[in-house]
Amino acid sequence: MGKTRVLVVGGTGYMGKRIVRACLDQGHLTYVLQRPAQEIGLDIDKLQMLLAFKEQGARLVEGSFSDHQSLVNAVKQVEVVICTMSGVHFRSHNILMQLKLVEAIKEAENVKRFLPSEFGMDPALMGHALEPGKVTFDEKMTVRKAVEESKVPFTYVSANCFAGYFAGNLSQLGTLLPPKDKVGIYGDGNEKVIFVDEDDVATYTVKTIDDPRTLNKTLYLRPQENILTQRQLIEKWEKLLGRTLEKFHISAQDFLASMKGVDYAAQVGMGHFYHIFYDGCLANSEIGEEGEEASQLYPEVQYTNMDTYLKRYI
Ligand SMILES: NC(=O)c1ccc[n+]([C@@H]2O[C@H](COP(=O)([O-])OP(=O)(O)OC[C@H]3O[C@@H](n4cnc5c(N)ncnc54)[C@H](OP(=O)(O)O)[C@@H]3O)[C@@H](O)[C@H]2O)c1
């Protein structure tokens, strides 16, 4: 059990709350950025979550992205900063705000590891991505550049597909629940995709923070059992359901055509879907010298496979 002082920025978010829990579970001294009263406003869920973190042993540190000194003071208290700033367009999207955090970390001079908000496809491999979805990767690369120029030690976590967004719905757009009758298949449905339970993303992420093997590297989450084609994922659901679904195929051409006319946030998401399901971009590259694979580094983590994950939807 480590005893590293870790600050989680964005701790009440979808990923952030899992990172806070993993920090506490792994025995770290866990600090969570609490934004000032005027920024929390009347968001009672956010406040209650922060108070619950405190009850579970976390320390709340007040700070705001509008107050540089408050960020410096917050990061001065810790050795590691994990940021889970929002980055999903249809929800909230503020990846570039992290440049302010990098400035604060640089000034504070005490941070031994910074993990910026990544947790998706490796942006370094997505320079060719379709517009407008490319914005996500470009912004994450801008943050990487600032991190590397500031010489702050880092780890990037490339988490691939969060199961809640991509597995529970059998990768159907516009829904979070699995279809019970008909399912759309992208192309032939045979590109390899990587699905990861968000709680496992958090567990692996926190494992890296004091691990010299992940210093200045990218951690790729590729748990072997969870490298599946869309067809294989659908088969697992059909097995649980006890019947087969009607399938319809969506050609790459039709998929691209359907992007026109949807709003900007949907186009961003659909662009990512395109690269995942038609290009097979998640599993078609080797991990080089600059990367490590999570389930190999941490074989003790009992990750959730998608048979187990999908049971919650029955
Ligand atoms: N691989 C995948 O399938 C996948 C899916 C979803 C997301 N992601 C990635 O995961 C990361 C986190 O996304 P998320 O969905 O967890 O984010 P989120 O829940 O939408 O937001 C996370 C946090 O961002 C902070 N935030 C938002 N706007 C802010 C502002 N104006 N000022 C200060 N803080 C602000 C808030 O922190 P407070 O707690 O301080 O309020 C919020 O809780 C992103 O990089 C995203 O791209 C990956």
Automatic annotation (TrEMBL):
InterPro entries, A to Z: NAD(P)-bd_dom_sf, NmrA-like, NmrA-type/Isoflavone_red_sf, PCBER-like
Keyword terms: NADP, Oxidoreductase
Domain NmrA-like stretches: 3-310
Keyword NADP: yes
BP terms from Gene Ontology: lignan biosynthetic process
Keyword Ribosomal protein belongs to the record: no
Pfam families: NmrA
Sample GO molecular function, one term: pinoresinol reductase activity
Protein family: Belongs to the NmrA-type oxidoreductase family. Isoflavone reductase subfamily.
Annotated protein name in UniProt: Isoflavone reductase
